[in-house]
Amino acid sequence: MFLERVWNIIVGLSLIAVLCFIHGCAGVYITINNINGPQKLTRNISDSISLQCKAVNNTQSEKLVWFRGRSQVRLSSLNEVNTSTVCIDPLKEEDDQIVFSCRLKRKQNINSTVALDILFAPILSADSDVYVDASEETDRTFTCNAKSNPQAIMVWYKDNRTLKLESGRHSVNLDSNLFRLSIKMLLKTDNGTYSCVAISPLGSKALDFYLLVRDKVIPAPIEPIIAGSVVVLITIIFAIASRRQRIIECCKGESHSRRFTESEIQ
Description:
alpha+beta; Immunoglobulin-like; eight-stranded mixed sheet; 2 helices; 16 strands; 25% helix; disordered C terminus; Ig_I-set; Ig-like_dom_sf; signaling receptor binding; membrane; Ig-like domain-containing protein
């Protein structure tokens, strides 16, 4: 009796194993480059990469869809059933930290993902004027946009030397990719070339900003100008009025003279 039970258990387990082999016990799942689940791939910029997605344990033909971030990737009809491949060539800095996901079209919660880690040297660009012409006692800010992977060390230089920050006048701020230098109450000694420098294991890069500080522009006093203008205006009015009176008197004299002459002739 005991041996019969053992035999039945063995037969049952064997049957389950056969069914699992044929139909798949775990159900269909997705792999990318033969790995199921989230993964991270590190590559250098300008390299190329191939991602192959497969439907595993499927009992029917499965359509696959690819996404780059939230955007769906267009695939040909020959590249979407059971196995699908996407290639990125060449890799660019915009591909850094982008997540590619491959999903079952009919049930998109069954998927696998790969995040790209793209290594590249610093790339700098200006987010403010590069040539600045300013007067004394004004404020100016230089803004440098810096991208790199791995993250670069950021430093400001003045005339090829590390900038000595003065408390209360200089402030440096790094916000995401933006590296800022603010200078308050400009002095003539602030004239020079300011360099935004990014230092990375993959290389260093510098972006120059040029500052020219001119003498302070002293605004003309408004009150004396207004007072002077009023005086000039009043003088002009009196001059016109006086001149008009003399013209009227002259015209009256000429009129009397004409009448006297005409009466004499008669």
